Structure of ABC transporter ATP-binding protein:
Amino acid sequence: MNGLEVRGISVRIDGTLIIDGVDCTAPAGTVTALIGPNGAGKSTLLHALAGVLPLDVGADGPVGAGGPGDEGRPPGPAGIRFAGGDLLALPRRARARTLALVEQDAGTELSLTVAEVVALGRIPHQGYFADETDHDRELARAALESVGMTDFADRDVTELSGGERQRVLLARALAQEPRLLLLDEPTNHLDIAAQLTTLRLLAGLAADGVTVVAALHDLTLAAGYSDNVIVLSHGRVVASGPTAETLTPALIGEVYGVEADILRNPRTGRPIVALSPRG
Ligand SMILES: Nc1ncnc2c1ncn2[C@@H]1O[C@H](COP(=O)(O)OP(=O)(O)OP(=O)(O)O)[C@@H](O)[C@H]1O
């Protein structure tokens, strides 16, 4: 498949199994929303996909060997494949040319200008001792413009608001020209206009062939702007597939313990997920 294929991966932190035998896919050229309650394992899964957290090789043997959760799985190795290759086997620089991770609340202690931070996204594409090229500068400029932060280019990142910093870190990831873009709650600090701009930006990247996977808490944004969803709960995938078919009121009720209704935005026709407490 020309996208992300995850098979039977687990992650253990301090002895606790946080991601438990996850299988999922994210097709190239689409936006896949990763949803689930607090603590479901969304951030952990994204970190594992990015190679920042090691996989648990596990005591259960290869996937499909008849261990727990193996029902119906053909035998084969656990792992993460992207565009047909083993993602984690890529050397660091090659991986950084392939994927970018935009972390949640990634603080920055370094006193750099916004332009300098975005320029860091070009490093994986530059030779070890090569200077920045006009092409690098143009991509960094365009990335900053696409998140509406051009006027902040000379500001110190440590002085930005949370939402401004989030947009700069997205710009850095865009400058990296990833084919796989992983984002951990990319809208959590953004005002509502910037949330819509960001989701539309992600849809545009997907239209250009990028594989986009974004953890989202806002189910209306997930329902309205993702092509596919992966629903995590307690470190396991409880549902996945095309958003319109998968993200149903019954599933939302089951996973989040609330009542859900799906309405239509009168202007755009996109779904709105209306939530109310149960009982
Ligand atoms: N370093 C750690 N040490 C111990 N437990 C951890 C660590 N990091 C994460 N966990 C636990 O792993 C589980 C999954 O956390 P994770 O941050 O991946 O969830 P999440 O779905 O992203 O949650 P949220 O929606 O709250 O951001 C949680 O129970 C969390 O407490």
Notes: The mean pLDDT is 91. DSSP finds nine helices and twelve strands in the chain. The CA atoms of residues 28 and 97 lie 16 Å apart.
